[in-house]
Request: fold
Amino acid sequence: MIPVEFERVELREGRGVIWPAWTAQHDGPPFRLPVWVGEHEAALVQIAAEGLRSPRPLTIDVLRQVLLAFDLRLEGAAITAARDGLLHAELTVGSGTRRRTIDCRPSDALALALRERAPIAVAPDVARAQGVPPA
Reply:
C-alpha cells in the first residue's frame, strides 16, 4: 500500500472530486487520485478535513461513536481496488491484537480517516491505473 495524504475537495459539474496525493514516504512516481463522489459526500469529506462539527451527529460521527462503544480503533483506511468503474475501499479497525477490515465506499473511508486522523493508503495497482500526475 502507498501512503497518501488528503489534498483537497473540488466541485465539478455537480459532482465532487476528492484528491488524495502521494507522500514523501512513497518512493515511486508522484500521483494524485481523483475520487469522484456526489456533492453531499464531498461536503462530508471537507467537513471532516476541516475538523468542523455539526449540531447533530453526522454519519461519520455516529460510526466513530459505535467504534468507541465497542472499544475499537480506526487503524487506517485504504482505497483497495478499481472494478467496473468504481473505486473500492476498506477500513481497518482493531482492538488489542484483533484486526478486522470493513468494506466501504471511498468517500466514507476518507471522511472517517480524516475525522480520526488515521492513515490513508492506496493500493499500488489503483495508483498506477487511476492516478494522475500532480498539478
